[in-house]
Amino acid sequence: MKKILLLIGFTVFFAACSSSDSTGSGSSGDGYDRTALLTNWADNLIIPAFENYQAKVNTLQTVTATFTTAPSEIALEEVRTAWIDAYKAFQYVSLYEIGKAEQINFVNCTNIYPTNTTGIEANIASGTYNFALLSQFDKQGFPALDYMINGLGADDATIVTFYTSNTNAAKYKQYLTDLSAKLKSNADLIVNDWNASYRSTFIGSNGNSVSSSVNRMVNIYVKNYEKNVRAGKVGIPAGIFSSGTTYGNKVEAYYKNDISKVLLNEAVKASQDFFNGKYFNSSQTGPGLKAYLDYLNVVKNGQPLSTIINSQFATVSSANSVLSDSFSEQIFTDNSKMIAAYDEMQWNVVYFKTDMMPALNITVDYVDADGD
Question: Would you say 317 and 285 are in contact if contact means Cβ atoms under 8 Å apart?
Fold first, then answer.
C-alpha cells in the first residue's frame, strides 16, 4: 500500500512539474534556450523601444502645453513635428501588446483609425469624457491628434483660430491637452511596469505552454503584422476586405495625408527587426525568431525558412517603395500598387502561420476572420 501511495505521489509530482510554465533550464524541450531569447527581447528590443516611445510622447506633451498656452502657427508646427516623431516611435512598440500594454488596450486606445470626428466634437462641446471607456477608443490617440492639429481647417491660420477665437477655444485646448496626457500616462504605466516587475515575470515564463511568454509574444507579433500592418495600413483602405470598394479616408494619418507610407515602412522595419532579434536603435542582434528557426534547421523548398522570410521582407519593402506618400492619393490614382503591396505582405503571414509557428510548436491563439 505504501509503495502504491509513493508511486502516486511521484506521479503527481512529475505531472505538476511537466505542466509548469517554466522549465527551469530555459528550454521548451527542443533544446533552444528560451530564457536567453526572452532576455534579449526584454532588454534589447521591448524596454528600449518603450522608453524611446515614452520620451517622444513626453516631448509631445511638452510642446502641446506650449501651444495651448500661446497658440500660434509656429507652435502648431512644433506639435506636428513631435506628433510625427511619437507616431513613428509607436510603430516599434505596437507589436508588444503584452503585460500592462495588454491590460490597458494600448493599441486600441492609441491608434484606431479613422478617428471619430463627430464624437471628438461632441466630447469637446460637452467637456465630459472618459478615455478609459471602450466607446472612447476612436476619439483619442494619434488619429484624434491628427484631426486636432491637421484637420480642423484648410490652413494653419484657420486651425489656430479654433484654439484662440473659437467659442469653445478653451475646450479645444483642454481636449488637445488631454489627448497628449493620455498618451504619456499610458507610456509611463507600461515602462514603469516593465522596469518594476514585469521583466522578471516575462523572462521567467520560459516554457512552451499556451500562456508562456514566447508562445504569447509570437502570437501577438504575428497578429500585429497580419491585422494592424498588412490589413489596417494597406488592405482595408485598398478594398481587400470590401469586395473592391476602397476607403481613402481609412488610411493612417489621414489629415496629414503624406506620412502613411512613412508609418508603414517603420512598422515593417520593426517587424523584421523583431524577427531577427535586432536591438532597438542598434545594428547588433541577439537571440530571435531567426536564430530559433536556424537552430532547429527549419527548411522550406531547400532554403532556410529564416532566409525566405527575410527575403520576403525585402520584397515587401520594394513593393512599398513605389507607393505614394499619400495612400489616399495612391488608392485614387493606382490602387493596383496598394493591392500588390498587400499581396507581398501576405506571403510572410503565410510563412509565419503555416511554417514558422508549427516549427516552433506554437499554436495560433487568435481568431482569423479575414478568410485568408
Answer: no
Q: CATH number, domain at 60?
A: 1.20.1420.20
The C-alpha atoms of residue 349 and residue 296 are separated, in whole angstroms, by 20
CB–CB of 289/301 below 8 Å?
A: no
Residue 10 in any domain: the answer is no
What contacts 155, CB < 8 A, 6 or more positions away? none
In the chain, the number of structural domains is 1
The range of the structural domain enclosing residue 354 comes to 26-359
Q: Count other Cβ atoms within 10 Å, centred on residue 42.
A: 20
- pLDDT tens readout for residues 136-150: 999 999 999 999 999
Using CA atoms, how far apart are residues 243 and 222, in angstroms rounded to an integer?
A: 25
21 located within any domain: no
First-last CA distance in the chain: 58
pLDDT digits (tens, 9 = 90+) for 214-240: 999 999 999 999 999 999 999 999 999
Rounded-to-integer distance, Cα 178 and Cα 343, Å? 39
> What sign does the CA torsion over 182, 183, 185, 189 have?
positive
